[in-house]
User: What shape does this take?
Amino acid sequence: MKNVLLLGLCFCFGTFFCFGTNTQKNIIPELRKQMLRAINNPKVVDSLYQNLHTGTPKQPLEIAYLGALEALKAKNSWNPYNKIKFLNLSGKTVDQAVNASPNNMEIRFIRFSIQTNLPHFLGLNKDLEADKSQILHQLKQKNYGSADSLFVQNIIKFMIGSGRCSPQEITFLHQQAKNLK
Assistant: This one.
């Protein structure tokens, strides 16, 4: 299950993270690249988390990435208490981002990818259907936000491989991927 989360996050995060007075569109591609590094490096997770957590007020997409970092902190923790603490914090943080920007496909995908990989018994994967529906709707509308076509293709690959889509939805996703090329 953790490997699927790692694969999904690997597919989706790309460039180099910088802090400063850049606009959100300049920061996000760089944050994606650092998230790719963070998946396999707890020190990068801690560094990015510290920088995002203590930085200036954040846009909804940055808040969603902060939630993804909290999920990675949970994954990297050996202490069960800290695992649950960071998972709960991650859920609240990503929910805040979704509430601030409910039609943002990338934010919905971040929450979908986290919740897809959580054990069902934790009860922390309650938004999977809503997120899947919103992602499919945004794909149909070609409303990709700041995501480039490679990023969108990787979202589609993750959705297909998640085991959460019906055969009809998988057919639709394959068509969308074909149209991006």
